Amino acid sequence: MIRKTKKNANSNRPVYSLWRRCTSLKALKQIHGFMVINGFNSNPSALRELIFHCAITVSGAMDYAHKLFRQILEPDSFVFNTMIRGSSQSSTPSDAFTLYTQMESTHIRPDKFTFPFLLKACSRLSSAFMGNQFHTQISKLGFESDMFVRNTLIHLHATCGSLEVAEKLFDESGKRDVVAWSALLAGHSRRGSIVFARNLFDEMPNKDLVAWNVMLTAYTKCGDMESARRLFDKIEERDVVSWNAMISGYVLAGSHVNALELFEEMLKEGETPDDVTMLSLLSSCAHSGALDIGRKIHSLLTNNCSRDITVVLGNALVDMYAKCGSIESAMHVFREMRDRDVSSWNSVIGGLAFHGYGKEAISMFSEMQGGDVRPNEITFVGVLVACSHVGMVDEGQKYFELMREKYGIEHNIKHYGCMVDMLGRAGLLKEAFGFVEGMPMETNAIVWRTLLGACRIHGNVELAEVATKRLLELRPDQSGDYVLLSNVYASIGEWGGAENVRRLMGDRGVKKEPGCSSIEMDSELIHFLFDSNPSQT
User: Fold this and answer.
1) Which class for 408: exposed (0-12), middle (13-18), buried (19 or more C-beta within 10 A)?
2) Which of these, 437, 391, 381, lies nearest to 412 by C-alpha position?
């Protein structure tokens, strides 16, 4: 129950301590309703604070803030600045420009608090044009000397690529402020000027954590994990951004073992992971097959989360379980999700399809068609793979046509590849080759290798030689392609042909790639490498 609190003796107006603590739009609407009923809706101070909480404090309440804003007949600079600030960090930053135009039309003079939020909107939109327009007005009004405005200008120009302007502002007065150093450092890092950024970083008289994280992220994004790790180890007090930069860097570099080991270290250090951490780790588990570690992360999310798991995290869990082969767990997470988007359906349909549950995948697709989520091109890759794995050729052809006829989705190389695989698995090799010849786009190596694999299964040497010729024209140095053709000859007892292929590999200097496997033991990934090249064994 909402109760009117006592009046503040100093301000002679109600103190709304309850709604100030609100963190949801629903609660703010309740408080607003209370204000309307009790006649406080006409109180400018109360409305100002309510708008502030909608625009700044409560996530997802910006639309309601606009609704409240339209009820104010004569908004002042505080209200305009609040709305511009909220818009600049919303999903529609360009609304800040519309508000500024309205501010000018009502003859409300902008102040030094107005422009940093406008410049932030420009940075988020990468709009150098609008940024330059505001920079001109800032200079005319004399705000360029304000430290906060100047730092935001440096950040804007560095973000949008005008590094010369950013450096000029920095040289004039920015060297005194660590924020200016970090803004310029971030600009050079984004442009890939890693050496220059590192020199700038080393010159900084006082380095804050933002600067350390900017430099750390620069190294991880360019794949230099050795330099990133050395820098990471020097940070005395890390935050979750520091850990996330390293973990995501390892994941992007394919060093999944290092990513998971760093996560364990992160927990031991007492740092609380956030959604970004979990997404990176779940991706790592999915690619490395670390199912037990993935289950631990799921448990951590379930036990330690004070709120519902987001759609993005739910999708990552479904994808992780599916790629690790735990289809039952993937289905359980999918069914437990309160909200689902097209990625949710794609993950579960694709997971079922790639693990041989073709009929179940088709059933899920039928369920998806009966709901509100519209399938996309990725959905149909999963559907066509499902048809291919269970030999549903007629159904696959029907879904292939359904893409364009019902949903207006154009076929891409992956869809054609799925159709070739489906025909090849079913033994319809001539039809598969005819399908390839009729493709409206250039055929890639994956399609020809798919055909070569089908030829091996069905022992068709003649078509295998055609596929291999086309394949080697595209990539003559892939040992697996030679081995596959050799196996086709061997499968029908043509040992001379198999030997000729092996000899051709030697003449061209193509070596068979080492085999690699991994197992998970006591939550640790152990890798095995087998090299069958005689010269290296």
Assistant:
1) exposed
2) 381
The pLDDT confidence band at residue 385, using thresholds 50, 70 and 90, is: very high
H helix count then E strand count, the chain = 30, 2
Q: Collect contacts of 62-65 with beta carbons under 8 A, ≥24 apart.
A: 62/86, 62/87, 62/90, 64/25, 64/28, 64/29
233 pairs with which residues across the strands? none
Contact 353, 385 (CB under 8 A): yes
Distance CA 320, CA 326 (A): 9
Higher per-residue confidence, 69 vs 176? 69
* pLDDT per residue as tens digits for the range 148-175: 898 899 888 888 878 888 888 888 765 6
Q: Please state the separation of Cα 7 from the chain's center in Å.
A: 49
Angstrom distance (rounded) from CA 192 to CA 194: 5
d(CA 191, CA 221): 11
Q: Would you say 186 and 155 are in contact if contact means Cβ atoms under 8 Å apart?
A: yes
In this structure, how many other beta carbons lie within 10 angstroms of the beta carbon of residue 236?
6
pLDDT in tens, 177-211: 788 888 888 888 887 788 888 988 998 888 889 89
Task: Enter the tokens of residue 25.
Answer: 């739009």
Q: Which residues contact 339 (CB under 8 A, 6 or more apart)?
A: 311
Which residues fall within 8 angstroms of residue 249, CB to CB, at 6 or more apart?
219, 220, 221, 223, 225, 228
Q: Kindly state the percentage of the chain with pLDDT values over 70.
A: 79
Tokens linked to 190: 């984004």
Indicate whether this model's pTM tops 0.85: no
What residue type is assigned to position 122 of the chain?
C
Residue 515 pairs with which residues in a beta bridge?
530
Boundaries of every domain in the chain:
436-537
Contact between 537 and 531 under an 8 Å Cβ cutoff? The reply is yes
Q: Which residue has the tokens 């006591």?
A: 522
Confidence of residue 4 (pLDDT cuts 50, 70, 90): very low
Of 447, 455, 530, 450, which is closest to residue 490 (Cα–Cα)? 455
Q: Enter the DSSP assignment of 484.
A: H
CATH level 2 (architecture), domain 436-537: Alpha Horseshoe (1.25)
Q: Which residue has the tokens 């609660």?
A: 27
DSSP state of 306: S
Sign (positive or negative) of CA dihedral 373, 374, 377, 382: positive
d(CA 371, CA 368): 5
